[in-house]
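haha ok so turns out i had the wrong file open the whole time. this is the CORRECT one, sorry everyone. sequence first:
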Amino acid sequence: MDTAFDADLDGAVDAAPEALSRLAIRIIRSPKRRKTAAAKILPDCIEVRVPAGMKSDAEAEMVASLVARLERRRAAEASAVNLVERAAKLARRYGLQPPESVRWAEQNDRWASCTSARGTIRISTRLARVPSWVLDAVIIHELAHLTEPNHSPAFWELANRYPRQERASGFLEAMSTGHCDPCHTV
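then structure:
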């Protein structure tokens, strides 16, 4: 592990993120709701509103999904990572175009996405608890897309400037197949 790199970039070497306290879950069965559910974080709990007539197994699945989404968002917001600053430093270090904006976003099918025409990058909240070198690899991948919007050889030449790109891809592949998922430790 290149600890000098990590320490130089963010002032700490992959310190374990502080555990967020688990919030109580309050379920409100609403006769006004027919098919959809909604959840929000309140100061003392996560409130989930579900249709009153929903079957218990469907309700449990819907509640679990909504709570997991909110917990990922809480973890991302509580993260000490300043995505804009980190992306700017990585862009300078690897000679890539800096983004106009970088933010956390709820993305279930992608680790990140980029709109090269606007210079915007969105990082999945599922990555809020991965090691910094994995997050850096994803950011660099998206920074490379600001110059090369496809996966051409020119793109890979830019993305592979990061020495841990292949290792991070393996980590993310394992995470996507369920072999490791730091996001479920929230």
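The chain has a mean pLDDT of 82.
again sry for the mixup
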